[in-house]
Amino acid sequence: MEKIRIESRKNERVKAYKKLSESAAERAKSGRFTAEGARLCADAAESGIRIERVFYTERALEKYGPYLEKIFQKAEIAYEISEPVAQLMSEVRASQEIFCVLSRESLPEPGALSQNGFYIAAERMQDPSNLGALFRTAEALGISGVILSKDSCDRFSPKALRASMGAVFRLPVWEAEDLPESIRAFGKAGFRTFAAVPDRGAKSVLKCNFAPGSIAVIGNEGAGLTAEASEACETRVTIPMRGRAESLNASAAAMILMWEMMRSPEVE
After folding, report:
1. d(CA 49, CA 105)
2. pTM
3. What's the number of domains the chain is made of?
4. Same domain, yes or no: 177 and 70
5. pLDDT by residue (tens digit) across 81-131?
6. Residue 239 contacts by C-beta under 8 Å, 6 or more apart in sequence?
7. CA–CA gap between residue 9 and residue 131 (Å, rounded)
């Protein structure tokens, strides 16, 4: 693996990294995305994600050597950068001064949904931290995959990646151009579809049988599910609440739904 030293904040490789980190359009156009941090970058290496470039400081090498060794084994080229360059590239206050450019082509192909699987679908989710938390919880609980509407935020944004703790590298993801239409198609194919709504008249999630082949659908942080997406689902479900709050944070609601989905087969 080739190693090159970069001192200038105006270096073309540095500027390209910064543009990729800041722009969802650039990530989509190039088929690449960025990751920052020793653990997250090492996780990418261990997950089989192609690492096109790694940037690191001398201080990072001294402090996070074992992580960097894993990254170096997978990286195509390495750049040792100065502290000022690392400050420019970082998205966080206390940077670990390790940065990677990763290829989307090396992510796992989602294939077809399994009738034995359990899935979470998100419509128009706009907060990358919520989306990342959804991925992290989905992987932890054993959810089979995530279905995202095309107008949701970018799962490859720095905030979403950090919140996911690497789950974005491993979970199968399906992007739906028209989520309500996709939901209807899943229903026709034999999947059970559940719309999560803040409606006391809907069926309590505590009384649902989330059998294999279930898809739970959550909506936008502020507006919830669109009427079309809700109507496309077979069953409307709600999370019973005793307090004065009318609804839950999107990632919190998704967490409860996924927990109930994975708990149901064990208690039924």
Report:
1. 8
2. 0.90
3. 2
4. no
5. 999 999 999 999 899 999 999 999 999 888 899 999 999 999 999 999 999
6. 196, 204, 205, 248, 253, 256, 257
7. 31
